[in-house]
Amino acid sequence: MSINANDLKIIIKRHNEQIEIEKIEDDKLSITDQGFDSLDIIDVLLCIEEEFNLKIEDEVASTLISINDYVNYINLHKE
Amino acid sequence: MYGISEIASYIPLKRRNNLELIDKFETNENFINNKLGVRSVTRKEINEETSDLCLKAFNNLVDKSDFNREHVDVIIVVTQNPDKNIPHTSAILHGKLGLKEDCAAFDISLGCSGYVYALSVISSFMEKNELKVGLLFTCDPYSKIINENDKNTSLLFGDAATVSVISEAPMFALGKFTFGTIGASSTALECNNGELTMNGRDIFNFAAKYIPNDIENLLIKNKIGHEKIDVYLFHQGSKYIIDTLTRRMNLEKAKVKYDILDYGNTVSSSIPILLEKEIESGNSKYIVISGFGVGLSWSSGILTKIGDK
To answer: A 20-39 residues with CB below 8 A of B?
Structure first.
C-alpha cells in the first residue's frame, strides 16, 4: 500500500516530535528551503530507514529534495 | 578495588565564537545553539603540545587536591593527536612531570570511546601488577587536524585535557564494561593527510542505533536497573545526539547531562569533564558513562560511589 506526504509527516512526527515537519507546507518545494537543517534531514532519513526497513545511500539521499521525493522513493523501494 | 579518586581538567580559555561564522557556513543561531549545541569551541595555543595540555590538567589536579606525584606507578595518555609519532606522549609527559623511573607509561589510541576503555585498561593493569597510584590522561586536540573551513568539524570540536587519579581507595568503583567496534564503517570519522573528515550522518546513525542497546546490555551485565541510575554521562558528541539518545531510551531529561555549549566536543575528554563535576557535587551514587565515535568504537561502564571526597 502506497503512502502519501501526510502519512510520512505523521510517521516523522511520531519518530521525533521535535522535528518541525509541520513547517513543510508545500510538498513540492525543497525541505531545506522551508527551514530544515542538516540534522533534521539526517533524522528524517533514519526515521524512514527504520520505519520502512530501507537503506538509503548518501548518494541517493542527496537527490531527495522535497517531501514528495521521499514519498516517491519509499513507495518505489519499500517491501 | 580500583577506581577513580579525583579528576581535574584543563579547558583552554581561548575560544572561537561559532555565532560569528553563521554567514560563512550558511547556518543560523538556532542550529548553533539548540541543534549542534556548541556556541563556541576551545582552541589551544598554536605552540602548545598535547603533553602541555595534560601538564596543565595535572597542575589543576595539584591545586585542588595536593596530589603527591612521588608515588605514581603508571600513567596513560588517551590520544590520537600525540605530540609526535615517536616517542609516545605519555613518555614525554612522564619527563615533564618528573615522575619516578619505575613508573609505567603508555598511550592508548582511541577517540571518543577512549576514556571508558582506558578506565578498564588501567584498573586491570594496576590490579594485575599490584600498583598503587595511576594517572589516566585524556587529550585529543582536534584543532591540530581540523580544516577551519569544514563546517562539519570546525563548529563542533574543542580542545581540552583531563587527568583522573586511579587508586585502591577510590571515590567511584568501576563495574563491568561493555565494548564494541564496527571497523567496516571506520571511514566515517578519519584523518587523511593531516585533515579530519566526518560523515555526520554515519556517526549519528551509529550512536542512535547502537548506544541504546549497549546501555541495556550494560545494565544487565551489572545487574542494575535504570531506576537506580542517578545520572547518564554520554560522550558529548553534539546536543542533537544527546537529545536523541535521551528520547530513544526514554530517559528522564534531568538525569542526562549536556554541557558543551561553551567549549565543544572534546573527544575522549568529554566524559571526565562531566564526571569531575559529579565528583564535586557528590550527589550521584550510580553513574552510567558511555563513549562512542572514532572506529567506530564504543564502550560503556557503571561507576558506583563508595567513598567521599
So the answer is: 37-39
Instruction: Identify the CATH class of B173-305.
Output: alpha beta
Superfamily of domain A5-77: ACP-like (1.10.1200.10)
Q: Any catalytic annotation for residue A33?
A: no
CB B204 to CB A37 under 8 A? Answer: no
pLDDT at B129: 97
| B259's grid cell | 554541557
Task: Tell me if B244 and A16 make a contact (CB, 8 A cut-off).
Answer: yes
Looking at residue B161, its pLDDT comes to 98
Domain ranges of chain A: 5-77
d(CA B68, CA B78): 22
In chain B, which stretches have pLDDT less than 70? 309
CA distance B305 to A67: 50
Q: Is the ipTM of this complex over 0.90?
A: no
End-to-end CA distance of chain A: 10
N residues, chain A? 79
As a whole number of angstroms, the distance between CA B178 and CA B120 comes to: 10
Q: Which three cell numbers stand for residue B67?
A: 596530589
pLDDT, residue A22, reads 87
First-last CA distance in chain B: 17
Tell the residue number behind the cell numbers 589510541, with chain if given: B109
Query: d(Cα B280, Cα B6) in Å, to the nearest integer?
Result: 9
CB atoms within 10 A of CB B214: 17
pLDDT per residue as tens digits for the range A51-75 = 999 999 999 999 999 999 999 999 9
Fold annotation for B3-169 = Peroxisomal Thiolase; Chain A, domain 1 (3.40.47)
Cross-chain CB nearest to A16 (options B204, B205, B247): B247
> Would you state the pLDDT for residue B309?
66
Residue B13 distance to chain A (closest CA, Å): 29
Which pLDDT does position B1 carry in this prediction?
86
pLDDT of residue B92: 98
- Closest approach of A26 to chain B, Cα-based (Å): 22
Can you give the residue ranges of every domain in chain B?
Answer: 3-169, 173-305
Q: Is B150 on the interface with A (CB under 8 A)?
A: no
Q: What is residue A69's three-state secondary structure?
A: helix
Nearest to B34 by CA among A6, A20, A69: A20
CB B44 within 8 A of CB B56: no
